[in-house]
């Protein structure tokens, strides 16, 4: 019986009250069946010992009736109590699991939960790493409470714009991560550009003042058998380039590879540097 209850606790969804009542009915039925089985075994023994005060048939009827009414009611009441205890345990466990996967300040997923989601991500998705530009300046000028207000405001915009299968998390400090699904690479980049613009246009109230912030983003595509560590490293490098170019921009990993190739060509032949720089400015509108 203890094993069965433990199994029910593991398999049953005791967060729902309906499960408690079904559990109580099952327990009552099993208790009555066991009681009837024990009675049917004991009655012949009592009759043989001369301790049975009633005829066998009457004794069987009476014992079965008592088993159903008394045993069923008592076991049902106990099962209800056990069910409510399991309900509280299930709710507490679910809440603990939720809290263990949630960043307390932003309300978004934390790094641990994001890492798990990234491992499960399939093709037709992109990993994005965001970073709030010049966040330390805000903390130094307005205080850490204002920095927290910025994190909360940015998180709310992220939550409103990444929905459905998309995953958004705070990775730590002023860094966020997102797994964006659907469409092709160009459509996902456009979506991220829109979010960047929304944040740049949003004024945040801090210490009686209103500040506008910007974010930078690095994007890498999740595809085929590509290892998630390689995807994350590529997004991180793209973010580094976005910050190095002045921030408030979205950089796809292909741009970082292009920039790396340019650098390697300059190192081979310094005389091509002015030409490559001009080409880069023309191609990226800077």
Automatic annotation (TrEMBL):
The keyword rRNA-binding does not apply. It catalyses: 2 GTP = 3',3'-c-di-GMP + 2 diphosphate. PANTHER family: DIGUANYLATE CYCLASE DGCM-RELATED (PTHR45138:SF9), REGULATORY COMPONENTS OF SENSORY TRANSDUCTION SYSTEM (PTHR45138). The chain crosses the membrane at residues 20-45, 65-86. It comes from Rhizobium calliandrae. Its EC number is 2.7.7.65. Residues 123-255 form the GGDEF domain. Keywords: Membrane, Nucleotidyltransferase, Transferase, Transmembrane, Transmembrane helix. One of its GO terms (molecular function) is diguanylate cyclase activity. InterPro entries: Diguanylate_Cyclase, GGDEF_dom, Nucleotide_cyclase, Rev_trsase/Diguanyl_cyclase. This is diguanylate cyclase.
